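Batch job 17 of 40 flagged for manual review because the log was empty.
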Amino acid sequence: MSAYEGQRVVVAGAGVSGVPVAEALLERGAVVTVVDRAASERTDRLAAAGATVLIGVTEPPPGTQAVVTSPGWRPDHPLLSAAVSAGIEVYSEPELAWRLRPAGAAPWLAVTGTNGKTTTVTMLAAILRAAGQRAAAVGNIGDPLLSAVLKTDPPYEVLSVELSSFQLHWSSTMAPQAAALLNLADDHLDWHGGFDAYAQAKARIWRGHDSLAVGNADDPAVAKLLATRSGPTASFTLGRPSVGQLGVIDGTLVDRAFGDEVALVDAADVRPPGAHNIANALAAAALARGHGVPPEAVRDGLRGYVPEPHRNALVATVAGVSYVNDSKATNPHAALASLAAYDSIVWVAGGQLKGVDVDDLVRTVAPRLRGAVLLGVDRAEIAAAIRRHAPDVPVVDVTSTDDGVMIEVVEHAHRLARPGDAVLLAPAAASLDMFPSYGARGDSFAAAVRALAT
């Protein structure tokens, strides 16, 4: 008999993760209630499968024994707050996946951090496949982790798992066999209520006492957390590695953590370019090496890696100016890594800052700015920071919010740029004030650049 047989479970949200959660619970005999903000094709589908669907309720139904929540639901949502106050367990889809994993299930090699998660897990999956293993990049990347865990035809041999702070916040037993924390910077502070709570949520990825914890030695907050670990650890650095680290020696990524010193791959072979992506490659290599992958597979996987879209991607070069799409730079930490890769920039920025300050970012990158074109709901905060730290840099304020806004943005950037410059979309902000996703924002920018090039 399933542990969920007869258990009364609320599934909060009928989105990408909520649907497979509800279906898996129904298959195991749970009494499932799906709560969402509005009726949809998904809620209709779940109702037809046997779930009770409630729209807009803010209290768990009487008798509720557990709530499985989607990451879009904040901890202060009335339904979740009421559940916690009533002593009802609340957890995430990855936590459910961990609880439902079958005997002999594929090990999880997990990644979290403020930035670089998707790049790292897809790099890791490429390395694992180069080693001949059936592997998938899953989790917060888009494919529900639950579906991968329950796959049986054939099952995966290893999973490269991206975990967000939201998912980790609502976890209690999930303990991946190895896990990397890439970096920590202000992000999602409105969701977590402050940096300390955000950092502690991220650190839950290292819950397993015997699991390998991999951390970024160059990030003070991560290094401090890693130093408190009593189990096995490894770290990575962009400098020369000490014993127990992976790092870079004379332009080559080197492993000194898992046996004798061994060269892995030339830094010049890592894509996308940029120091932050060298760090991502080192983190992926550390997880793979800890899993027993040979150096040759690390080399082949990274050399053959195809970067995910909207990450420091060159769209076109027009009249000597490079137009680069890094729409995935949705917070100041990510934007800084992107901006640091170019010497002279017309910066396209703005959107939803999520309660995060941009002052330090603008102060740091001010010497690189040729100009800035700002859009989105919080553009005034970026403009004010530029006035404080780079008062001579011309700023164009784009007030339009219609579908053609990126055409206007790219035209302004084109006028500001000079040969040798990069026009860089690195918004430092989320996209949902104007676009369905950061991907849609990047696609719109790329389309406007291609129109300019014709």
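Reviewer: the log was empty due to a logging misconfiguration, but the result itself is present. The domain at 313-453 is CATH 3.90.190.20 (Protein-Tyrosine Phosphatase; Chain A). Unflagging and moving on to job 18.
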